[in-house]
Amino acid sequence: MNPASLLVQNLHKRYGDSSVFSHVNLRVEPGEFIAIVGESGVGKSSLLNCLAALDDWSEGTITHNGVDLGTLSETQRAHWRRAHLGFVFQAFHVLPHLDVAQNVGLPLLLLKRPDPARVAQMLEAVGLGGLGERLPAQLSGGQLQRVAIARALVHRPSLLLADEPTGNLDPGTAAQVMAVLQQQAADSGAALVLVTHSEAAAARAQRVLRLTASGCT
Ligand SMILES: Nc1ncnc2c1ncn2[C@@H]1O[C@H](COP(=O)(O)OP(=O)(O)OP(=O)(O)O)[C@@H](O)[C@H]1O
Predict the structure, then answer these.
(1) Which atom of ligand 1 lies closest to the CA of 197?
(2) Distance from the CA of 64 to the center of ligand 1, in angstroms?
(3) What is the sign, positive or negative, of the torsion defined by CA atoms of 111, 193, 164, 118?
């Protein structure tokens, strides 16, 4: 049996004395697309930040392709993220002083594997061919999120996390961006974990899980 792309066992997250969620169990296979929904404040973003090893959890384990993320040092976590993770945020987080191609190429630069042909391929794939020299200020919200999607996948990560990626977009643009995100994740074989309030976005997933204070079902 192949190792699960992502295995979460009995995860419990507290901020100080305050419990956010507990007993979260989750298994995501390579290439699978799951959506996590739940009421505001239930801890969806906190869970995603734990899955990215950007935040610590209080109990339980997160394993990615057999690697127990809880055993990694901060430096090892940073290396793991660079090599294996793509993250798409609601607010795009595109760097304003870099042009579109430089933004998309950043993960490859950090891995010391610059590859302009791969950047051009990703820009074409997300419908931004020919716009590589534009600055982010010269793009629409939908185009900015396409830049973020291209950047998240350019280094062929096996895990793609998306936190409300269509939250800043109108419904029509949101549908187009979700289609690009889903297609690109599928083409690259990445497991996609989407956190969203959007029923339309969640409906695209193979599985929809609801996070509550006492688990994820
Ligand atoms: N750094 C922090 N320190 C303390 N409490 C926090 C911190 N970050 C989040 N929280 C709290 O943890 C709970 C979960 O927040 P989180 O943002 O993960 O929820 P969410 O489900 O993503 O919410 P939303 O759907 O509104 O974005 C909230 O009560 C929030 O106030």
Answers:
(1) 25
(2) 24
(3) positive
Q: What is the CA radius of gyration of the chain?
A: 17
Question: What total of structural domains would you count in the chain?
Answer: 1
Q: How far is the CA of 41 from the centre of ligand 1 (A)?
A: 5
- In 36-73, where does DSSP find H-type helix? 44-51
Tell me how crowded residue 45 is: count the other CB atoms within 10 A of its CB: 16
- For residue 6, being part of any structural domain is answered with no
Identify the CA nearest to 38 among candidates 30, 29, 26. Answer: 26
Please report how many Cα atoms fall inside a 13 Å half-sphere around the Cα of residue 76, on the Cβ side.
7
Please report which helix (H) or strand (E) contains residue 134, including its range.
none
The distance from CA 52 to its chain's CA centroid, rounded to whole angstroms, is 8
Does residue 184 belong to any structural domain of this protein? Answer: yes
| Structural domain harbouring 116 | 33-44+73-210
In a domain, 8, yes or no: no
Residues 18-39, mean pLDDT to the nearest whole number: 96
CB atoms within 10 A of CB 135: 15
Is residue 61 in a domain?
no
What are the pLDDT digits (tens) for 160-180? 999 999 999 899 999 999 999
Give 4's pLDDT tier (boundaries 50, 70, 90): low
Atom of ligand 1 nearest to the CA of 42: 21
Question: The domain spanning residue 120 has which CATH number?
Answer: 3.40.50.300
Q: How far is the CA of 200 from the centre of ligand 1 (A)?
A: 23
